[in-house]
Amino acid sequence: MRETTMRRAALCGAGWLLLVLAGGCAMPQALPHDTPSFAGAALPQPAAGLALQLQPGLAVDRWWLLFDDAALTRLIDDALRDNHDLVAAAARVRAARAQLDERRGAQGPALNLQASHGRAREAGRDKVGGQHSAALEGRYELDLWGRLGSASESARQSLLAQQWAQAALQSSLAAQVADAWFALRAVDRQIALSEALKETRRATVRLRQQEREAGAGSEFELRRAEAELAGADASLVALRRQRSALESGLALLSGRSAHQIAGFALPVEPLDPAQPFIARLPQGSTAMLLAQRPDIRRAEAELTAARANVDSARAATMPSIVLAGRLGSDAQTLSQLFNGPAFAWSLVGSAAQILFDGGQAKARVSGAEARGDELLAGYQRAVTAAFIDLRDAYADLQQGEAAQRAEQQRVAALMRARALAQLGVRNGALSVLDLLDAERQLYQAQLAEVDALRDRLQGQVAAFKAVGGGWSAPADEPRS
After folding, report:
1. CA-to-CA distance for 322 and 8, rounded, in angstroms?
2. How far is it, in rounded angstroms, from Cα 79 to Cα 441?
3. Pairwise CA distance, residues 258 & 89, whole Å
4. Which of 11, 40, 296, 333 has the most CB atoms around its CB within 10 Å?
5. Angle, to 10 degrees, between the axis of helix 70-82 and the axis of helix 147-213?
């Protein structure tokens, strides 16, 4: 009868303990967080006649598709899949997820199976005895002040921050690849212009040599033509070196291995300054455009995590209450281990309160609050910097178009000047030096015209990045 009563009491105690433990698994409510405020902040209005389309609902998550450039799309897709920095960012996300799982596990009960066997000689006696035990041991800390819940929320927000950091890296990486790609296409156009100029210079040198041999030309004109040819050669060398560096950079950004980089070569269609380009941007309020930027979302998550850390540090100064229970058996022989007399159970509640720790707990609270203040300042800076990025992007698109128009007008004027110089040399009204000077100015203007188009394309990329484009949403956002 006594044995039955003990077992019933043990089962009731264990059931009560498990009920309490299960009830402690509920997640706390997510802490509120700030949202970006752009009261009074308005974006500049596009100037009249500007080749810019503001399109409501324009999707910019994969903005590179809007350029309709298959090679660019392939490079960015490769980079978003294989880039080494993104691989490292994915590992940081996994580590943050593991930290969240650990913090959430600490909120629930812990249940261990413990078994032991030992033999010992009793003092003063020759008898050697054995001791066997087997038990389930449970432990649960009541989270009355929210310490464990706040720590779990901090880990959840830290995971979100790592996910947004990964998204920000995706956005930045896509922009870097596009910038390098347009720079490579621009260099290829400039190489083609330089090669054409070199052929013209070579023909001029041959003509001056023939005139010199016939006694009709001067050595000065010949040496000047040779110097111009050498200058064209030097320009080509510099451009080809620049092209090689751009290819290497693209290979690294796209995650190519060392073996692949050794034979990496990109077939490129050179930029065509005569091809019209119209910039496009999504239409919407400043807050709508900037709130979707991953760097702002990351700063917001880091700030919320810091506030949760403050709550956890404050709660750690309060009393802690722990429930512990044990259900098992102790016996001297294995045959007696699971018999009634060996059966035992216990249920213990304990409380602890820090009385003196040299100010450690208070220092931890102060440190968490200081970290929160630091991240608040960083969050406010991120919001301001995001608005400046978008404002500058709009201005760059406008100024870039004006610069390209000016360069196009300069090229048209210099092409006419070269034609007049050629006619003047044939009629004897102008010298060969006048023609060389006209060709040199035209060449420099054509290079600048290509640069202006490259700058417009890169400005469009910067604008897409400024409005939060170029990243994909996390596959699974951690639940509250």
Report:
1. 24
2. 39
3. 21
4. 296
5. 140
